[in-house]
Automatic annotation (TrEMBL):
The lineage of its organism: Bacteria, Bacillati, Actinomycetota, Actinomycetes, Streptosporangiales. It comes from Actinoallomurus liliacearum. PROSITE patterns: HTH_CROC1 (PS50943). Residues 13-68 form the HTH cro/C1-type domain. SUPFAM superfamilies: lambda repressor-like DNA-binding domains (SSF47413). InterPro entries: Cro/C1-type_HTH (IPR001387), DUF5753 (IPR043917), Lambda_DNA-bd_dom_sf (IPR010982). This is Helix-turn-helix transcriptional regulator. Gene3D superfamilies: lambda repressor-like DNA-binding domains (1.10.260.40). It comes from the Bacteria. Transmembrane segments: none annotated. Pfam families: DUF5753 (PF19054), HTH_31 (PF13560).
Amino acid sequence: MRSPTLIALGSELRRYRLAADNMTQGQLAKLINYSEGMISNVETAQKVPRRDFVERCDKALKTGGALLVLHGLLKHETHPVQSFARYAEAERDASGIHMWDVVVIPGIFQTPEYARALLTAGRPAARPEVIDDLVAARIERQGILTRDKPPVIWAIIDESVLRREIGDKETQRAQLDRLAELAQQPGINIQVIPHAAGAHAGLTSSFTILSFDEAPDIAYSEDPATSHLHEKPDLVKALQQTYEALRVVALPVSASLDLIRQVREET
């Protein structure tokens, strides 16, 4: 089910575009430096646009910020599939991904069995079809790892993530095998912060920073009820500084792979 707010945003974008001397999608695309296909997908509510896209449309069409108001309402919609889709859309466009997780294996690295066990435990009241949708959406994201030009990925995880059993032992072992396999792929860098590091800057929350070739960086975080895309430069900068502090205390990539394999043997 598509978001009513997303449908309204697409309809208003089309209305303002046509009101501007019957401007075509191609003409607007040139003005805002986005593809014509992106404009079509937003107008038909097929894609959730980033704030940068909406701001450029507002400016080009002289809407007085009307589209940005609708865009802001999207973050208040709580349907889990819709919320997750907003992040997944931005992730598909990213050229670089920096992830920090203190609780579980990052979603982009999860096996289907691990993802299902995790999502089921985290949403005990959710209907089975909702869990199915969430698992499918999470696994679909992994297509970016094998595309022609995949993003460069840096993932930092806490050692507790490796040792926390999600699902049964077979599920956990398969997940650690998958993580070790990914850690050896070009363009994927996985570092582990060992227990011996003690207190560090990332103990309170997990987050992801997405980088783009032609747009500002954004950040993403989530809690059990909602997910959040952060686009304010000051907040993104603060999370980037936290990420660098975590990288300082993390094990090097090779030593991290050794630890992943060690925990796998112990599981």
